[in-house]
Amino acid sequence: MIEFLLMVNKQGQTRLSQYYNHLSIEEKTILEGELIRKCLSRVDYQCSFLQYREYKIIYRRYASLYLIVGVSDQDVNEFAILEMIHNIIEILDKYYENVCELDIMFNIDKTHFIIDEIICNGQICDMNKNNVLRPILLMDKVSLKM
């Protein structure tokens, strides 16, 4: 099960965080701080998987952003999560037309909505780009008419 998803820039600032189980604010702050330090300090040729506490961490760097996913189930396929991370970036790229950190910051609600279409309650729901983007494109279309 996916426990959390973080988008972090190279300076270590969290740009988006989504948790699928309750953690207190203090726990989230400590978790994010330690994970960010661990992932950012790793060299490019090192493996994108690591063990942290009870979580299996899978991360990937795209330009200036790191996507960090924590899973609790030890039977989870790391490559499937890595593919999901890549798919999230492709979907965001398609929606924002070459996504960057500023797109995520200024449209955080839309980014959360897109991720919610992909991950539901810690499980991967839908990876089809058209299915994921259809609801948000309809919302954009309706908001333009108003």
Structure description:
With 146 residues, the chain is α+β, with helices and mostly antiparallel strands. It has a single domain (2-140), classed as Beta-Lactamase (2-Layer Sandwich), CATH 3.30.450.60. Helix content is 48%, strand content 25%. It has five helices and seven strands. It has a five-stranded antiparallel sheet, sandwiched between helices. A two-stranded antiparallel ribbon has the order 6-7. Strand 1 and strand 2 form a beta hairpin. The longest helix is centred in the middle third of the chain and has 19 residues, at 78-96. It starts with a strand and ends with a helix.
For the record, give the distance between the C-alpha atoms at the N and C termini, rounded to a whole number: 40 Å
Number of strands: 7
Strand order in space, largest sheet: 2-1-5-4-3
Number of helices: 5
Provide the residue-averaged pLDDT.
93
Helix and strand sequence: EEHEEEHHHEEH
Question: What can be said about this structure in brief?
Answer:
This protein is of the alpha+beta class. It contains 5 helices and 7 strands, in the order E-E-H-E-E-E-H-H-H-E-E-H.
